């Protein structure tokens, strides 16, 4: 069976859960099958309602990100963050490619726009992998970028705020201080972890009997 024909693991697990729930409902009886059917229908309706409630905020902030790009704000943020990015991504800085895409992806993540950050992050990864002799193995800069995208510094979690507003929260911005502390702390930890990994991956020099270092 080809790779395209393979069943994704997530789909297989979901199918097993559905079949298992149906078997348990049939064995339990007492209207369990009808309850499961009603839950399926109501959940499908709730999913559509939630999706429609998120479309507006996502379009708003994605458009806002595009406006920032047209105004040159992202270029200014790239110049301001250039000293730090050059230290974190020295190879990309020497090649002059990838830093703008990295900045755009981090800005999108900072605004909580994970959907908008995904294509930007993929483009940045292509720039980071370009020109490498070992494309099958991730470099330390690629690992660091993946970690920063996984645990990005978040200033305004728009998706979370939209979910809390849609759920009728009285104070949607209540978790912001905790989110700031956790996201920036995770970002710092990711950078330190990547630096430790980079040090361990460097080729060590062997010392000969004459005291000279040889590779």
Question: What are the key terms here?
Answer:
73% helix; mainly alpha; disordered N terminus; 9 helices; 2 strands; 215 residues; two-stranded antiparallel sheet
Walkthrough of the structure:
A two-stranded antiparallel sheet has the order 1-2. It is globular, with a radius of gyration of 24 Å. α2 crosses α8, α3 packs across α5 and α7 runs antiparallel to α9. Helix content is 73%, strand content 2%. It has one domain. A hairpin with a 5-residue loop joins β1 and β2. It has 215 residues and is mostly helical. It is built from 9 helices and 2 strands. The two termini are 45 Å apart.
* Strand composition percent: under 5%
What pattern of helices and strands is seen along the backbone? Answer: HHHHHHHHHEE
Strand order of the largest sheet: 1-2
Helical coverage, percent range: over 70%
Number of domains: 1
Mean pLDDT: 77
Shape: globular
Count every beta strand, where a strand is a DSSP E run of 2 or more residues. 2
Main sheet: strands, sense, barrel: 2 strands, antiparallel
Distance between the termini: 45 Å
Write the layout of secondary structure elements.
Blueprint (H helix, E strand, L loop, with lengths): L8 H20 L3 H40 L1 H16 L1 H6 L3 H12 L3 H16 L10 H11 L7 H9 L9 H26 L4 E2 L5 E2 L1
Antiparallel strand pairs: 1-2
Helix pairs in contact: 2-8, 3-5, 5-6, 6-7, 7-9
In summary, what is this structure?
The chain has 215 residues and is mainly α. It contains nine helices and two strands.
